[in-house]
Amino acid sequence: MNIVITGATGYIGKHLSKFLTETEGHRILPLGRSMFREDMSGHLIQTLTHCDVIINLAGAPIYRRWTPEYKKELYDSRINITHHIIRILGTIKTKPKLFISTSATGYYPSREGEEPSADTTVFDEYSKVRGEGFLSDLCYAWEKEAHRCPASTRTVITRFGIVLSPDGGAMQQMLRSLKMMKVATAIGPGTQPFPWISIRDLCRAIAFIINNESLQGTFNLVAPQQITQLPFTNAMAKAYHSWMTVKVPRTVFRLLYGEAASFLTTGQYVHPTRLLDAGFTFSVPTVDKLLEGTDHHTVNNLDLSHYMGHWYEIARFDNRFERGLIDVTATYTLRPNGTIRVENRGCKKKTPYNVCKAATGRAIIPDLTQPGKLKVSFFPGVYSDYYIMELDEENYNYALVGSSTDKYLWILSRTPQLPEEVKKKLVTAAERRGYDTTRLKWIEQL
């Protein structure tokens, strides 16, 4: 499908664009702010006429001091752009099948200093109340504008929790002091609700909504776990071996951010009732799952002679050794002494001819009781891990290969193309192990 995304260059937009193109096979058409100028109306009309789905992520960052001028920017970047899209949709004959407009859990009433208990009010999509203050009013106006979408287009409002991933957003900021000084920082008092969702599940949830044509209306995109800020910080501190956890008083954030500090010192208890009822399964339902190490266990049985031969690289986590390479293959040959000859080959697109190169190395199985764990060397005395984690054990037609860290991941096949059901099977297996599959780069095979 052709999917238009506003805000495609932002943190969420980049992850979502990559996921929808490389995992789901869609074509992404990014809409920058310049497309909403009056002199670009013709181009915008043409783009929206030829798209199947619109995902509206546009909006200035909320993590700044809310001066009167910045409040106007927050409003204009959300409501005005949404209004512009809706106005165009009302004029075109061929309308998109689906319009997804984002919002936030800030729509709901905030809680401050309230630990979850049996009597705690948890809001879901059926709750008829909304909060007070600027953030709630902003979400309400944003959603109200989106609901003006023509009736012939399926409309979905997604209320995001705090989106977490180590490579960006709020979590990257939280990890800064942890990694540099081994000190975890909690926002006082630490008892405020912390609605969150992993970037992986956010991308999967949006794909789920796109693929299930019966879904419309409002959906909370939050993990099902109810947690407050201090336990979340303590879990991060444990995972990253912090020396201590420091509570920063709310007054510090109020001095720094003014009214915007309420975004950090309060929160909402929110549940994804409609997503769960529709059959969506969270790959990261708890903070412990978010922070746990990646599962690198390998296959228990390996017929090495059967594994030898030619493999095509279908997908990978990009790395400095393969950056920019297409048409990547690996050929393994078992030598009489039990070592393995490895020949990797790949090409870079150049004009008028592609430039191809090959590298030859060797591999060994250091422990015969763990046949799925190999060591590969392309430089004398320097070995890297090669872990065969998933394998077509009957025919050896495909494999999922990683290492002792989560920096490397490959999907390999005996043929240049893999059936979609096999690709999804291997991606699901990688997600189950804790890999962020939005990082997978699908490789062009010539």
From TrEMBL:
Ranges where the DUF1731 domain occurs: 248-292
Family recorded in the similarity comment: Belongs to the NAD(P)-dependent epimerase/dehydratase family. SDR39U1 subfamily.
Organism field: Bacteroides faecichinchillae
Gene3D superfamilies, per database record: 2.40.128.20, NAD(P)-binding Rossmann-like Domain (3.40.50.720)
Domain spans labelled NAD-dependent epimerase/dehydratase: 3-220
UniProt cross-references to CDD domains, sorted A to Z: lipocalin_Blc-like
Domain of life: Bacteria
Protein name: TIGR01777 family protein
Record-annotated Lipocalin/cytosolic fatty-acid binding domain positions: 302-445
Pfam families registered for this protein in UniProt: DUF1731, Epimerase, Lipocalin_2
